[in-house]
Design a protein that fits this description.
This protein is α+β, with helices and mostly antiparallel strands. The chain is 20% helix and 38% strand.
């Protein structure tokens, strides 16, 4: 009932202002329109992730120690940068690794296979300090890491709330193999996928944004 009464008053004021002439009428209309606007609301949304994914091909990596090999231990190496500021509330990282027959080889050769097949992931702070790392020498179905502040880093000095501003680095180095055999069941391709993204504060202006749209707070400063 109260809402209905308010709407009637607003409509009445609009009619009066339209009947008025000059700047007074425009001022009244502006005040009425401002009063009808919805207030902006804040949301937290994920930014499009950084992704490093690779499927090894046959002969891309050669076995360490081979006579005809001058190849470095890691035949895949890449670095991605993600910009972090004070509006970042969370960092998310997930990855998966597929090394065919890794369990069988582990039983035969032991766990000292990190020079043969591996994926090493490092997350570095803007100052170069290590936040988190992981070395996979066998298949990993799906693993996830969630950081809500730097205090969640596995290697941390003190208890830091929030994240350091600047470029964080996702460093991935790896070695894998692929075999195309006459028998399909003997063929395989080693592969991995690493994704990193952040969630940031975002402001929704109902009068200009469609459903699912917003403007990042960092863009409004």
């Amino acid at each position: 009932m109260h809402r209905t009464g308010t709407c009637i008053i607003l409509v009445f004021l609009m009619l009066v202002s339209m009947a008025s002439s000059g700047c007074m009428g425009l001022a009244v209309q502006r005040e009425v329109m401002e009063g009808m606007r919805e207030d902006p609301r804040e949301d937290i949304v994920p930014v499009e992730p950084l992704v490093q994914a690779h499927t090894f091909s046959q002969n891309e990596c050669v076995l360490p120690g081979s006579e005809d090999s001058n190849q470095e231990t890691d035949c895949y190496s890449n670095e991605s940068r993600i910009l972090v500021d004070e509006t970042v509330s969370k960092m998310l990282l997930d990855f998966s690794v597929s090394f065919e027959w890794s369990a069988t080889l582990g039983e035969l050769l032991g766990n000292n296979t990190d020079e043969l097949r591996f994926v090493e992931i490092k997350l570095l702070k803007p100052n170069g300090d290590l936040c988190w790392d992981y070395l996979a020498t066998s298949s990993v179905g799906q693993m996830s890491l969630e950081l809500r502040s730097e205090s969640d880093c596995t290697i941390s000095i003190g208890n830091s709330s929030g994240f350091s501003d600047g470029e964080w680095l996702l460093n991935v180095r790896a070695r894998g193999y692929a075999i195309s055999a006459p028998i399909d069941t003997l063929s395989f391709e080693d592969e991995f996928r690493v994704s990193l993204w952040v969630t940031k504060k975002c402001v929704v202006f109902p009068e200009i944004h469609e459903e699912g749209e917003c403007t990042f707070s960092s863009e409004l400063e």
